Give the backbone structure.
Amino acid sequence: MAGSYCYPYPHPAVTADIAVFSLRQQQLQLLLIRRGGEPFKGCWALPGGFLDIDEDLESCAARELEEETGVRDLYLEQVCAFGRPQRDPRERVISVAYFALVPVERLQVRAASDAAEAGWFALNALPELAFDHAEIIRMARQRLAAKLDDSTLAFQFMPKAFTLDELQQVYEILRQAALDKRDFRNSVLHRGLLEETGETRSRGNRRAARLYRVKQPDRVGYTFNDPL
């Protein structure tokens, strides 16, 4: 339990905000909540909230995400800290932002806590946002794209079993660019992160596609040079 302290200078409050991305309707979408209280009552915002005095940052992010959306047990990665003095009209607030990626079928989103509503929005059609959350989202999107080449983050969008074509589609959506099929397959398989399930998926008149899975799903989100 934290003790009581008195300092001759003011202390800022700290919050955690979370950008949760998923693939819906063949596009990258973001989970937002509609604020149920002031400030910015009725506006859409990232899920998040204030850090408890005896809580670490990642625990705060996970708790606030579950309290406001019902979503839990996601791999969260820290993006950046945002501390512009006037970013929150209530008081001096520093926000530490996180992002997460998840296949939509894993989520059962529900509004809770002080969130009046929760919903998915395409990144190219976001509503007006509270605070500086548009800036946080831009930064999270940039971090996501930058990590595609040297991490397994894209695998978080995938179900337990998937084809290489499905995985390539995810990369193309995240990059917003077409990829050469042969080069992509060679690159992905060369990393040794996937294994065949021994099963196939029918594709109409085309030859059935092999199904793959991640060898160590508990390591999804790590960089390729991390020891596995």
